[in-house]
């Protein structure tokens, strides 16, 4: 499975059929935080890939670099995409105001990640930031492991996603 398709749900939010759990309410502060964390990390990895690889003489494409990170973190990337999709479906069913509020929340995650990266470029210079960030990403420091502060929330998001997918598969 191409994870970019899963991540497109975080950005583009294409619609799919709502599940019975969505009727009961999908939103959760913990899942919102975990999916925002994954979305922010994914954006940062992708932006570093776009901004830095050619300048560093790297041969892989930005897409290959990002997909490598996504594959190492598949469990959480897919869970975040599934959750955001369910949130979007629920918000769409409630009307334009709710949907627009959710879209603004998602845009805010991206703006925050953009601002954080710009801050690094401004503080340390683009070249130094690119070298450091690609080394961190290549070395696995950006991978989701038990040492990540939000690990408990990320594991809960993954468990929710697995349960949600099973419910959707049940006729």
Structure notes:
This protein has helices spanning 3-11, 20-24, 29-52, 62-72, 74-94, 96-124, 126-138, 151-169. It is mostly helical. It has one domain. Helix 3 (29-52) packs antiparallel against helix 4 (62-72), helix 3 packs across helix 8 (151-169) and helix 5 packs antiparallel against helix 6. The longest helix is centred in the middle third of the chain and has 29 residues, at 96-124. The radius of gyration is 17 Å and the shape is globular. Residues 1-23 have low confidence and may be disordered. Residues 1-17 form the signal peptide.
Topology:
Elements: H1 3-11, H2 20-24, H3 29-52, H4 62-72, H5 74-94, H6 96-124, H7 126-138, H8 151-169
Helix pairs in contact: 1-5, 3-4, 3-5, 3-6, 3-7, 3-8, 5-6, 5-8, 6-7
Count the beta strands: 0
Low-confidence stretches: 1-23
The biggest sheet amounts to: none
Shape verdict? globular
Secondary-structure-derived class = mainly alpha
Instruction: Give the C-alpha Rg.
Output: 17 Å
Give helix % range: over 70%
Strand percent estimate: under 5%
Reading the helices and strands in chain order gives: HHHHHHHH
**Total individual domains:** 1
Distance between the termini: 23 Å
- What's the rounded overall pLDDT mean? 85
User: Total helix count?
Assistant: 8
